[in-house]
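ingest -> fold -> write
write: protein_1
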Amino acid sequence: MAQAHIHQNASLYVGDLSPDVTEAMLFDVFKAVGPVLSIRVCRDAISRKSLGYAYVNFQNPNDAERAKETLNYHQIKGKNIRIMWVQRDPSLRKAGNGNIFIKNLHPSIDSQTLYDTFSQFGNILSCKLEPSKGYGYVHFETEEAAKVAVERVNGMLLKSLLVYVGQFVRANVRRQELDSKKTQEFTDVFIRDMKADITEEELRDFLKKQVGGDKDPIESVFLDHDKQHNRPWAIVNFVEHQIAVDVIEKLSGKTDTDIKKDDVPLYVVRHRTKFERQLGNKKIAKRTNNYSPSNLYVKNLDESINDQTLREAFSRFGEISSAKVMLDNKTPPQSKGFGFVDFKEVDSANKAIAEMSGFLLGSKPLYVNVAQPREVRRATLEIQYASRAGPRGVQPQVPGYGFPPQQVYPPPFFGAPAPGYFNVPGRAMIPPKGWPAGPGFPGAPIQGGPPGGLRGAGVPPGGRGGRGAPQQPGRGVGGRGPAPGRGAPKAAAGPPGAFFGQPPVDVKASPAPSDLISQLGRLGPQEQKNFLGEKLFNQITTIDSERAAKITGMLLEMDTAETISLLEGPRDNLVLKVNEAIEVLKAHEATGQ
């Protein structure tokens, strides 16, 4: 109980959870220890999928201490959970002090065994094992305990295997050190785009001529052919690092050599290991599939705007990581009219989008939005274009018939309402004055009415007064009745929202705003986005659970009114939209392959 006085908040972090673990399951496990105040499983804001960890708050710190000791590595849904104290200060977690790395572990070693092995050296904050990969991490409370563990266990036999134990070094630091070492010491060179019939002897002779000198500069040559593209490639190992550097500088991109393929320049670079190539491919895939909402795309820039001007214009919204105006390849370089601003905080980016969209910078109004990879932007636009056409056999929604004009770009920022709409606390989303109301919103005219959604008194069949003209106040049905006050009843004014040529609509009988709209009216912009995303995801999962997260993100790019109509309308409309999204994703995947 040595830590009870330290962790008075009685809050525990529970990690390594199975994706289908819920708060109720965790409550059933932890309630046996003592009274539980709250449990929260952290989930993705859009897909609502579990992130694999949760927070459990006890009433009594002693109960939290006992839960950590008795339930650590307890199995739930086939996975051993990992419990540690909640660290309020993120710098303590990120510093890495007292954290050690163990590799070459026997497959039979589990998290509990690893914990028991190292607990003799000091108090352990966290112990994590990757059994399928044979390595793990142990985080001690003090750095001294970690040093003792490294000295005592490194090189020892654990279940017949010699284990390595060392101080934990973050992946980016290791990668930088490795890249620096390879860049300074490499001797292997990769060569591609050579003529199809080249031989190893011919390649050797060519490289010797390029290097010159009496000594043979080549240690070894490996020549092979890429059968898919019908082109040879080679890895050449030179005797010295400087010779390899000179060969790359001299031959890379050359088109006037004897060994090159027709009209294709030689490709000569430092040979990268398989791990480096896979890492590069992962980075490309990550840039394609994930994009940060704090990185903004700024378009319609004036020719006079440079990096410094762009940074100064956006700096009032928060700290900026980078600001860049894209230039062409001309001499001197000229602005392409767009650039990027990357904020450190998402809130700062949202403020910049709200205030800088349409802002006059120089002589041009700016267009500001979240930056998206080309593939994601293309897929989103295809979905939006397809949504404009509507379901098969149904006429598209035409501006002026109760629907706002559609736009073909995403909403201004994550959590923002549809373009032109604003929020009133406690009420549904309301269009601005003079803008036709969207479907499902208060004040929306009946679909199928005349353009413009005009309002006037109801005219029963056979009424006079011209085509679509309202009755004159105080007149009867035929327009010739006695005036008010002469014994005849006054003509009842038509209820708001009635159209000319249509029977009057009973206001009392008109349906009230739906529960969904009422709930949205009580939420802020970001909560509205999350709420709609959760509703969409739950319905899309029943149609295509594998792609539900991606499809939800794509459909959320539509206007809020369209999203609401999908949720409240016939299920066939949603199924059609999902199928269109699946086709776009399949086409995108086929293009990527």
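write: protein_2
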Amino acid sequence: MGTNVVILPKEGYLPDDSEIIQQAQDFDVNVVSKVNTLQDSKLLLRRTRAVNALASQLMAAPDEESCYQVASRLMVPLFQVDRCAYALLKDADHFIVKNVAVQNRKHAAAMGLEAKKLGGSVVKPLKDTMVGLVAETLSQQYCPRTKDSQFEFQRMIYHKMGISSILATPILVHQNKFAGAIVISMEKEDAFELHDRILIQDIASMLGANIYAKRMRRAAERSNKISREILHAMIPPPVIEKIEVFWDENSEQYQRRRSSIQESFSMSDSLASSEHIMTWDDSYHQPQCTNKFSDKKYDSVNNFLNQMRNMNDDDGTGIVIDISAMDMISASSFNQVLYAENIKDVCIIFTDIVGFSKMAMTSRPVDVMNLVQSLFSRFDVLCKRHGVMKLETIGDAYLATTNLFDDYTNARDAANSALNMAKDMIYATQEVSVLAKEQGRRSPWLESLQIRVGIHVGEVTAGVLGETLPKFSLFGHNVNTAARMEQAGKPNKIRVSEAFHSLVSDVEGWDEYEMVQMKNMNEIGTYLLDPLRSRN
């Protein structure tokens, strides 16, 4: 890429009617031209330099509160003000007074005592106040003699606290939105020179820009915190510890993964656009490829693509297609999961609500959601009670596990916890009622909800998928088997696989062993348990 060269006219880059130019000209006319003595020049220069230095201090301040403190520490001694406060917008009709700073202890004691006597709240209405006028006009307001003020509150503090002049300067943030005002009070009448008011306006401008930046950063941090809390809620802590480096931009794993993704895209683009030269050996019908990629993986992909192009050629006969090149994409690190591991002897619990589809069609969505919430919140409590890990919910389905990342000493203990959880899930379902209707009956009635439960045990592959809103999931044949157990179940009963039953065979109440045909599977040996029968 080249370098852009811009030639600026001698008269300057900014147009003559620029707001910045206008402000500079006004400052020259109203302030600089009226400085007559060396002492006044030194004072103006000292205050101007101090205000300019404030910018870097505000940027270095860690948060919004610190910005107000930094600004007060400058203004109180620099302008010899008696009282400095910040009236910050609370809502459309109120402001809140914060970070009051005074010049000496005499003022602090007197103002604190008078404030108590006045019984004034720090939250005040905007209406009929100088701050309200600043919010309305978005301009600085100056009252040189509070005893003659149009606002009753200012006349009152003149008599009660001896405040004679008040300057209120708007703090504007993004797109000139009013965020509050700097309110400076003095015992002296007409205490603020024009150049002081201009410099304080500059301070307010710097303050507005910096508090907006702090607020945006705080909002981003809050958003990141919420995202991290959601992530921790969805993904087990042991997995979080293994994958959180992939979101840390300073980690080696993050940089390696980002580089791999970019390389994958770059290679794919190059493969799609590059020219290939194919030569054929008639004896073996095997393609030989010559191109700029030396890696065998990409050579095979080129061969595959060119073979597919040549299949429709008139002279394309006797071509042998090697489909092994198709695994190039799966071999790419772009498609590697953030985390995956095999875990043995995991007990998988599947449940769903009997007749849920009919309920969803005949009820309002919000009513269905409230029903599911009522049931699943009970299941969540049971998970904590039995040491079971809730994995996810999909519609009316609830998936939980034991022995995934739990501290069970053996698979038998994990299986007993899973079975006790399943029993209590059915008991808890009896506490949730649903409105039932039947053709021929005039009025509906309430009946207990029913669920089916299926349990299986075996090895699973646990993994985290996705770059955005990553999701923790289980994969493998045994997960499907657990789901089939639930699908082949009966209302308010627990169907378990033969493998799971072998771990809890000492539990009483099992029905006879039964071979059940599973969808997309062969017949599987199962056992059925009726917790409500054994409970009665």
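write: annotation protein_2
Residues 117-121, 268-298, 314-333 have pLDDT under 50 and may be disordered.
The longest strand covers residues 339-353.
pipeline exit 0
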